[in-house]
Amino acid sequence: MENNPNYSTTIKSMPFLFLEVKKAASLKIQGLSYPEILSRSINDNIFQVNTESRKKEIAAAVIKRLKVLDDYLIKKIVNGSIDTGKQVALYALMKTDRLFYEFMQEVYREKCLLHDFTINDADFNIFFQKKSEQSEVIASWSDYTYYKMKQVYKRVLREAGLAKKQKKAIMITRPVVEKDLTEHLREIGDNHYLKAMLGE
After folding, report:
1. For the chain, what is the domain count?
2. Which is more confidently placed, 69 or 13?
């Protein structure tokens, strides 16, 4: 259950997807397999989207995220508090999106450690510039792609409850994570994701 080793822009069209992830997690708890969830997406339009391709894309993205979660975490999304569910969904996103995870580690966490709780456009620009120097894939992206990624990252942080909008910037609001969730992530060896989320 390691991070996807490749950088991608999938998050642009598949951002936080909390409600979709929660719906699929609920079906998984009811005993449906991942192929059955995909089938329900296509045939019953459980994610309420307009096109056949979008039904498949969302189901694939949601299933990919659920697959990195154990039963305990899947149940937390469905039965835990909204905040806890969102934290688990964010953890799943970090586990399946390498670049977003690196942003959380190198920008969000660093900002918290420095007690500088504003993330502005310059911070995003520096991050993407640094990554483009390290990766030919990222270097090949257009300016518009960088712009879209920046917008989506801001939105994900806001929807996950880790930031609030402040003019063009975002203000970090560090989450309060339940003790049992914290202990579980440490037990399964994923403390680095927890630290990224908590800014520790």
Report:
1. 2
2. 69
3-state secondary structure 105-145: HHHHHHHHHCCCCEECHHHHHHHHHHHHHHCHHHHCCCHHH
Q: Using CA atoms, how far apart are residues 172 and 154, in angstroms rounded to an integer?
A: 10
Q: What is the pLDDT of residue 5?
A: 56
User: Are 117 and 53 found together in one domain?
Assistant: no
* Closest by Cα among 100, 123, 85, 79 to 14: 100
Could you tell me if 102 and 61 lie in one domain? no
Paired with 163 in beta bridges are: 172
Question: Whole-prediction pTM value?
Answer: 0.93
For the segment 64-81, what is each residue's pLDDT rounded down to a tens digit? Answer: 999 999 999 999 999 999
In a domain, residue 22? The reply is yes
Residue 115 and residue 199: Cα distance in Å, rounded? 10
Whether residues 62 and 108 fall in one domain:
no
pLDDT confidence of 2, banded at 50, 70, 90?
A: very low
31 in the same domain as 120: no
Distance CA 60, CA 56 (A): 6
Q: Which two tokens stand for residue 164?
A: 């609030």
* pLDDT tens, position by position, 16-60: 999 999 999 999 999 999 999 999 998 898 888 889 899 999 999
Residue 115 counted as domain residue: yes
C-alpha dist (Å) from residue 54 to 32, 38, 58, 87: 21, 12, 6, 25
Identify the domain containing residue 105 by its residue range. Answer: 94-198
